[in-house]
Design goal:
9-stranded antiparallel beta sheet; 9 strands; about 25% strand
Length: about 240
């Protein structure tokens, strides 16, 4: 009898108590709430990333056109006209522009390009400026998504260097950022060097490529443009066409 009792007790001790239905339901609820929490976190993360990347058109600083803009345009126009309309135009001539003069021309271009009815965005929505170290800085919008996606505009900003040496165009983009938060692009824009040069080359009319021999900046930021007055005559119809 004692032996049988011990046998029965050991078997009874080895039995696993049956699971209650409430425990399984609670476990399912926990899994369900974890799933909802993870999904909500992913949605918030996605919305945050989209908000950091996309925006509507911004309102960036823009100086109104004043007398200094028109005086500079008039002086440069007179200088170019004298060279081009000579009885015997010179083979080459040089135009030197200070940093302030280059920025004045860029401001004028922002206003007039939009007023001409081109695809250029409103002048206050982008900025292109010239620095004393010879670099151009920019902040420009790219229509990259539907309007419901926080405005749909992906802003690119950074700096680039541009030179022309005869038939060779040099475009370097050492710094490139994107989005509302100006997130850095890994490696800057170095990988865009060849693509940018090709894009600039394709966008320039052949008359410009022939008329401008070289373009480069000096130590103090002075922008030097060596042009060919004879070939510049071919640019006049493009400059004054309506």
């Amino acid at each position: 009898m004692p032996t049988a009792k011990r046998f029965v007790s050991s078997r009874s001790a080895g039995k696993v108590p049956p699971r209650r239905a409430g425990d399984a339901a609670a476990k399912r609820r926990r899994i369900w709430w974890w799933g909802i929490g993870i999904a909500a976190a992913l949605v918030v993360l996605a919305l945050t990333v989209l908000a950091l990347c996309f925006s509507s058109l911004r309102s960036l600083p823009l100086s109104p056109l004043t007398e200094r803009h028109y005086l500079l345009i008039g002086r440069l126009s007179n200088q170019l006209t004298r060279e081009v309309l000579r009885r015997h135009p010179r083979a080459e001539a040089t135009l030197r522009l200070s940093v302030d003069e280059v920025n004045t021309l860029l401001e004028f271009a922002r206003h007039t390009a939009y007023a001409a009815g081109t695809d250029v965005p409103p002048p206050e929505s982008f900025v292109i400026a010239y620095r004393p170290d010879g670099a151009f800085t920019f902040t420009v919008p790219v229509d990259a998504a539907p309007n419901w996606c926080f405005g749909g505009m992906l802003y690119l900003s950074g700096r680039f260097h541009f030179e022309k040496q005869d038939e060779k165009l040099i475009v370097d983009v050492p710094e490139l950022r994107f989005g509302r938060a100006e997130l850095p692009v890994p490696g800057g824009g170095a990988y865009l060097r060849e693509a940018s040069a090709d894009a600039v080359r394709e966008s320039l009319p052949p008359e410009f490529a022939a008329a401008v021999k070289s373009l480069y900046s000096e130590r103090d930021g002075t922008l030097v443009i060596v042009y060919r007055p004879r070939e510049m005559q071919n640019l006049l119809p493009l400059l004054f066409k309506k």
